[in-house]
Specification:
231 residues, alpha+beta, Glutaredoxin, Glutathione S-transferase Yfyf (Class Pi), Chain A, domain 2, 2 domains, 10% strand, globular, binds glutathione
């Protein structure tokens, strides 16, 4: 049995993720670890070299996806399962509201964010895997539209509130933020159509956890694939 001393997060080496230069599922776990002030080590794996599918990683996660969070004898590999584990094993500094009504909505919004995730991954994977000169404008437009249509739900949920559930940050905010921030990195503008989401992203960017984990290449590389002119 694999047994780790302390928490180890297996995640992509961002520089090996073409154009996206990040991985929303891994980033949201990093954010949870930081928000909860948990000690952890990061093991970065190159997508380009297929390190996430090495025999050692497949022994941890037969599905070959990352993030994988290893702690003691446990190997966890579905992002939302990792969140549940962290909250159960390390309840201090909770990222799930304690009050019943808020707790229920936080769970609902977290699982509901899987819609944002599937549209986001379809869009981001297309940009990541397709050489720029081979991008099909219609495919890009269709995937962008599906992602943007999904954003309307999240803009509505933020009416009159700073966080998606309750009065403080929760796992749902981490999940939604990482996909939206990635789309902004790829050129999506929020301000005109989604002012609450734009303010939410700015609020998140003030948090030390976000500042500490901000993808380094995003500071130098900027893309316009999802700008109004780009798609
Ligand atoms: N259901 C998984 C999906 C995670 C996921 O999509 N990971 C991507 C990176 S963003 C991955 O490992 N892709 C590599 C592959 O599928 O070969 C989760 O929630 O953790």
């Amino acid at each position: 049995m694999i047994r780790e001393e302390g928490i180890v997060l297996y995640m992509p080496e961002y520089a090996s993720v073409r154009v996206i230069e990040c991985s929303p599922p891994s980033w949201m776990v990093l954010l949870a670890l930081e928000e909860k002030s948990l000690p952890y080590k990061c093991q970065e794996l190159s997508f380009a070299r297929g390190e996430h599918r090495s025999p050692e990683m497949l022994a941890r996660n037969p599905r070959g996806t990352i993030p994988v969070l290893s702690d003691r004898e446990f190997q966890l590999f579905e992002t939302y399962a990792i969140f549940s584990y962290l909250e159960y094993a390390y309840p201090s500094k909770p990222l799930a509201p304690q009050e019943t009504n808020e707790h229920v909505y936080a769970i609902l919004r977290l699982h509901e964010s899987s819609h944002l995730k599937s549209h986001g991954m379809a869009l981001f994977a297309y940009l990541m895997k397709t050489p720029e000169e081979a991008l099909d404008k219609d495919i890009l437009r269709e995937r962008k539209d599906q992602f943007v249509n999904e954003l309307r739900f999240w803009e509505d949920y933020l009416e009159g509130r700073d966080w998606l559930a309750g009065t403080s940050i929760s796992y749902a905010d981490l999940s939604v933020f990482t996909y939206i921030a990635t789309a902004v990195h790829l050129g999506l503008s929020l301000q005109t159509t989604f002012p609450r989401l734009a303010a939410f992203v700015e609020r998140m960017k003030q948090r030390p956890a976000v500042q500490k984990t901000w993808p380094a290449l995003w500071n130098t590389n900027h893309y316009s694939f999802l700008s109004d002119e780009g798609a």
